[in-house]
Amino acid sequence: MEVTRKNYKDCLNTVYSAIEEADFLAIDGEFSGISDGPNASALTNGLDTPEERYTKLKKHSMDFLLFQFGLCTFKYDQTKSKYITKTFNFYIFPKPFNRTSPDIKFICQSSSIDFLASQGFDFNKVFCHGIPYLNQEEEAQLREQTEERRNQHANGVGTPSYISPSSSKGPAHIPEEHKDFINRVVEKVEALFANSEKTLDLEPCTGFQRKLIYQTLNWKFPKGLHVETIETEKKERYIQISKVDEEERKRREQQKLEKEQEELNDAVGFSRVIHAISKSGKLVVGHNMLLDVMHTIHQFYCPLPELLHFVMVFSFLFPLRLLDTKLMASTQPFKELITYTSLAELEKQLKESPFKPPQVETAEGFLSYNTAQEQLHEAGYDAYITGLCFISMANYLGSFLTPPKAYISARSKLIEPFFNKLFLMRIIDIPYLNLTGPDLQPKRDHVLYVTFPKEWKTSDLYQLFSAFGNIQVSWIDDTSAFVSLSQTDQVQIGESGLFCHTRQNLFTTCSLLVKYT
Amino acid sequence: MEVTRKNYKDCLNTVYSAIEEADFLAIDGEFSGISDGPNASALTNGLDTPEERYTKLKKHSMDFLLFQFGLCTFKYDQTKSKYITKTFNFYIFPKPFNRTSPDIKFICQSSSIDFLASQGFDFNKVFCHGIPYLNQEEEAQLREQTEERRNQHANGVGTPSYISPSSSKGPAHIPEEHKDFINRVVEKVEALFANSEKTLDLEPCTGFQRKLIYQTLNWKFPKGLHVETIETEKKERYIQISKVDEEERKRREQQKLEKEQEELNDAVGFSRVIHAISKSGKLVVGHNMLLDVMHTIHQFYCPLPELLHFVMVFSFLFPLRLLDTKLMASTQPFKELITYTSLAELEKQLKESPFKPPQVETAEGFLSYNTAQEQLHEAGYDAYITGLCFISMANYLGSFLTPPKAYISARSKLIEPFFNKLFLMRIIDIPYLNLTGPDLQPKRDHVLYVTFPKEWKTSDLYQLFSAFGNIQVSWIDDTSAFVSLSQTDQVQIGESGLFCHTRQNLFTTCSLLVKYT
């Protein structure tokens, strides 16, 4: 189901109940870019620690926009022995709520945009019809503003910003130059009380004048009036004054309150879907999902903190379990069976023996995807096949039970070892970032820090270390790299400083080697 | 005429000849945002100097993308006593040319995007079909790369990056592990010479291996072979070797050269249109065109320098004359006759007495705009009506001649006073930035620098200075502003430091006043 600003309010209940009834959820995000850093190899060094990687992504990836969010819900139907799926493809855009709301700036990376364009991505759906959103602080601010405006109107007292030399002498102090204007308004209102008209529309006037009118009328006519600011199509604002009895006044106040509440909910927009996912406590499956999770928290909750606090924020905000299918596919017992772990390749391999194609059916009223006609990089489709991958792998784990089980639920103990561990791209010896426990700390005795002239290529490093068997090169920049030797004890310290036994904190200033990291 | 990547090569000659035949050109740009600065008032303070304003725009506006460029050419037809117009609406996007070309990042401002969306802007035309471009440095780099690759193939010598320990011993030195591979290739080529086949396709291999093949074949078979790298649909690269006589070899080299030249021109893309405008030396008309000019230079020529150098770069790159219709409308004799200078309002007023509606006709084969059905903020349309405004105003100047003239050409001396002066938004006393002379330096003796508590509003300042008649407030930030008094000699210095005669460099530390700017 395609969800934009046009239809999302009608869809919300469908989304909520799909989440509520689901056994597990799959998600995927599409972004306006990946990295504004110097280059990809600097962003993903093969020997980053989880903290370094997180910090780099936070610095170089969060100014892009998550502008398409895919959610696919999976509910197991016992009678059919099938999962029933509901897929939602949300378009997201931070349309400013009003003139005072934050005017979000985000970066676009031309290679990413060009890639999405080549996949048929519809940018008009994002930019013209994207669903707005607020993070928690913005939402709180907006609620506060609304509250303040309410109190102001109710009490006839100016906002703190109006408590200044010119207006501090009392709630109804009128500056000299506005006295005539206000007196004329009071006369008109007195005439309204005397005649048979029900309402009186004033001429458009400035915000300051409107403030003075509210103050004066609240003070002079504490009862019997309802005063409201109305905006014309041309965005001019004028005040409408209505004669009302107390009951009518309360009814109108109540109406206004409800309207304000609705506008506020509209502004919170897509964040409400994320809140619902978070509150559901359901298992959430994603493929290579670290960036998706980081963007989701950054965009819909709060700017990202340090890694330590991120893990805390995460546990607080998300009483749910995450499972990364890329990590699962790269871990025993799948590692030996699966050659390629990119989403498209993985989905294909998991249909073949020893795996079984997952049994799924699209819920009534939802568009069904055909995995043969790939729609990769549409977030909804990617979420859908991520879910399929999870089902195949989970069910495969059931084959090890005695007796074997063909169906393993999202609540099975068998999948718990994969919970809350997010795949780390291109790190040699630390497969995941652990959200609910300490990170792995592999030994790196065999890792050398090498500097060289900037003309050198990987082949020159292979040549140089050819005596040491297989090596792994992790580029840092033009003139340095980490070189991992296959065996730790091979290396000799020469007096020349050229080769060294590696050990902790060893650092030589020679042109080639060696710093332990 | 809508111009995207799909059709721009077919349109180029039409564009070139329209520019060539025109009496003047009108331009307009649409951007992905206006300011990434803290707020609008900080960006456009009413008492900025031209240099300050330029520096702020350079800092806070250049990371946005100019993604739609409107060009309307106006050619006067003597027999019809009418201008014939050709309008082009170009969509522009920095699609990366290849894997090594710069991956441009640009900012989007949600309020600007939302505004364009509300005007029916088609973002898919930009992001999916925008015409690419290169600035002068990128173009030079690409030409150099192409040149280098050519020389390399011609001489069989590696690029400098391959002159490294493993390959510095000679052009045809083969590392041990590649010797078998290269020997097999040589054998195949020898077989090719012996048999009746014309061509030989090698297996896909690495870039390093291709390099070795080129080096070896150039050295072993200096004549009789044409060697070429071909890319498959799957982006795999393999080498194709053909037996050729010398004539055929040269013909193929020439073909390849031409193909490379065409690819290079494609990459330069939209910049070629800008170069043509620049070289034409024609009068270029824009409305409030400072940002358009800055973006055009920044995006298609070079990163913007300091203002002083900008003026120099400008005169060097653009042997043309610019005319800003917003400035013209704000200057005598138009100032007294024209109330609103926004483009839409201006165009309406210039159809009415004492002005005359401009006589224009759309050239055959071009879509005509109907000014009654406004299509504002489409760059082509905005350029078109900017041209109309210029014609009305220029012709109005003819009414002052004896005898009066109904038509004033773009080459008339009457419009020269407006050349190369770009309108400065919201500066009280400096109407324009002068590109070909010194900027105005108005007296600012009556300007006070005022600081105050952050709760204060403009009304508080009016109140405070109410004894001094009319004042103008130019906000700097939450707690300071420039206050311009209407009369210079009114102000008294009190011992309290509260009020001061303003004079150059006076600065008091009192809470309220005063610094001369």
Automatic annotation (TrEMBL), chains A, B:
<dbReference type="GO" id="GO:1990431">
    <property type="term" value="P:priRNA 3'-end processing"/>
</dbReference>
<dbReference type="InterPro" id="IPR051181">
    <property type="entry name" value="CAF1_poly(A)_ribonucleases"/>
</dbReference>
<dbReference type="Pfam" id="PF04857">
    <property type="entry name" value="CAF1"/>
</dbReference>
<dbReference type="Pfam" id="PF08675">
    <property type="entry name" value="RNA_bind"/>
</dbReference>
<dbReference type="InterPro" id="IPR035979">
    <property type="entry name" value="RBD_domain_sf"/>
</dbReference>
<dbReference type="GO" id="GO:0005634">
    <property type="term" value="C:nucleus"/>
</dbReference>
<protein>
    <recommendedName>
        <fullName>Poly(A)-specific ribonuclease PARN</fullName>
        <ecNumber>3.1.13.4</ecNumber>
    </recommendedName>
</protein>
<keyword id="KW-0539">Nucleus</keyword>
<dbReference type="InterPro" id="IPR006941">
    <property type="entry name" value="RNase_CAF1"/>
</dbReference>
<keyword id="KW-0694">RNA-binding</keyword>
<dbReference type="GO" id="GO:0046872">
    <property type="term" value="F:metal ion binding"/>
</dbReference>
<dbReference type="InterPro" id="IPR012337">
    <property type="entry name" value="RNaseH-like_sf"/>
</dbReference>
<comment type="similarity">
    <text>Belongs to the CAF1 family.</text>
</comment>
<dbReference type="GO" id="GO:1990432">
    <property type="term" value="P:siRNA 3'-end processing"/>
</dbReference>
<feature type="region of interest" description="Disordered">
    <location>
        <begin position="143"/>
        <end position="171"/>
    </location>
</feature>
<dbReference type="InterPro" id="IPR036397">
    <property type="entry name" value="RNaseH_sf"/>
</dbReference>
<dbReference type="InterPro" id="IPR036867">
    <property type="entry name" value="R3H_dom_sf"/>
</dbReference>
<keyword id="KW-0963">Cytoplasm</keyword>
<keyword id="KW-0540">Nuclease</keyword>
<keyword id="KW-0479">Metal-binding</keyword>
<dbReference type="GO" id="GO:0003723">
    <property type="term" value="F:RNA binding"/>
</dbReference>
<dbReference type="InterPro" id="IPR012677">
    <property type="entry name" value="Nucleotide-bd_a/b_plait_sf"/>
</dbReference>
<dbReference type="InterPro" id="IPR014789">
    <property type="entry name" value="PolyA-riboNase_RNA-binding"/>
</dbReference>
<feature type="domain" description="R3H">
    <location>
        <begin position="179"/>
        <end position="245"/>
    </location>
</feature>
<keyword id="KW-0378">Hydrolase</keyword>
<dbReference type="GO" id="GO:0005737">
    <property type="term" value="C:cytoplasm"/>
</dbReference>
<dbReference type="GO" id="GO:0004535">
    <property type="term" value="F:poly(A)-specific ribonuclease activity"/>
</dbReference>
<dbReference type="GO" id="GO:0000289">
    <property type="term" value="P:nuclear-transcribed mRNA poly(A) tail shortening"/>
</dbReference>
<keyword id="KW-0269">Exonuclease</keyword>
<dbReference type="InterPro" id="IPR001374">
    <property type="entry name" value="R3H_dom"/>
</dbReference>
<dbReference type="InterPro" id="IPR034042">
    <property type="entry name" value="PARN_R3H"/>
</dbReference>
